[in-house]
Design goal:
mainly alpha; elongated; about 100 residues
Length: about 100
Amino acid sequence: MLEVKINISDLDYGSIAQQALPVVLERLRSSRGDGKIIQILQGLGHLPSDAVQMMISAMPQDTRDAIALAFLNSCRDELAEQISKFAAHKGVQLTITGIEASKR
């Protein structure tokens, strides 16, 4: 088995905030997170994207990273499909057995 590593150094956290919000809310619900935090985050979904980006940028880096990781991990099936399609387009047959985003 081979492992391919992709490093992401610059990420516009605000641009994924609204897409990541449902994922983060679900994770908080399943982990029995603080109800007040869930209520606040649910309210963010109704705000204009500029306001959400501003609020995300004010969060601690670890929190922003956790949101980004939750979003990226929620997209792993789509990422695997896109990589497989790209490889097939290049004439390479492969099977992706897993994709996981994590923080170093």
